[in-house]
Amino acid sequence: xxxxxxGRVAIVTGAGGGLGRQHALALAVRGAKVLVNDLGGAVDxxxxxxxxxxxxVDEIRAAGGQAIANGASVTDFAAVQAMVGQAVxxxxxxxxxVNNAGILRDKSFSKMELADxxxxxxxxxxxxxxxxxxxxxLMIEQKYGRILMTTSSSGLFGNFGQSNYGAAKxxxxxxxxxxxxxxxxxxxxxxxxxxxxxxxMTEDLFPGDMLSAFGPQAVVPAMLVLASEEALTRAVLCxxxxxxxxxxxxxxxxAFIGTGPLAPEQLAAGLAxxxxxxxxxxxxxxxxxxxxxxxxxxxxx
Length: 301
Prior knowledge:
10 helices, 42% helix
């Protein structure tokens, strides 16, 4: 199977450098017309300049591709709507949205200002909400769409000093879970990508001898597959240094404890059975939890 995007229109946010730049370049090389969005700010979200986005556009055009630049902040829904309008005015449609824009404001929770917590949520979570909301009606109308959320191992598994970032990144998984269900009948496939890459935001975390292995270009194959016509839906793919994994939120078979006066003590005593992962499932929707609990209750009658 050849992964190609001829005739497709893609929007990549945060595409002025790092992962976003690699995503935009790769989509363009494989035939997509790409709107390159980047506010041009610092890692912490301060400042702004259209230079970064335009530089990537120039790269794409120099290689024979089609691209336009956009400097909107994903936190501004009106600006995001105008960004989507810019793509539609240029090329008539939007097929692919890669929600990649993000910032870092790391500190331990005890030292973190609430303003820094809110801003990280605003950029990562609400930025993806704004962009997805703006393209959703178009994708429903054209019966085609591919939306990618950039999550993180910090959200899936936690990371010291990143309570704001981790909360935002796990929230994106929840957003993806529901949008994939709602978009399925319209051929809108929604997925998450959890990258491990040495970028401007993360390069200080990698030992020097591993920097090249964890270049952002190593994550790109997963993005291309999840943005393709044959994409999965409702997947969380992890990628880094040429390795690829899938992450899942699972549900154990559980145990029936009941609701009597000694239920807390019985639950405490039975936690090993409740948390036993043998036979665990990946639920098809949130209703699976209630269905499983009903099974347990009926089995106890």
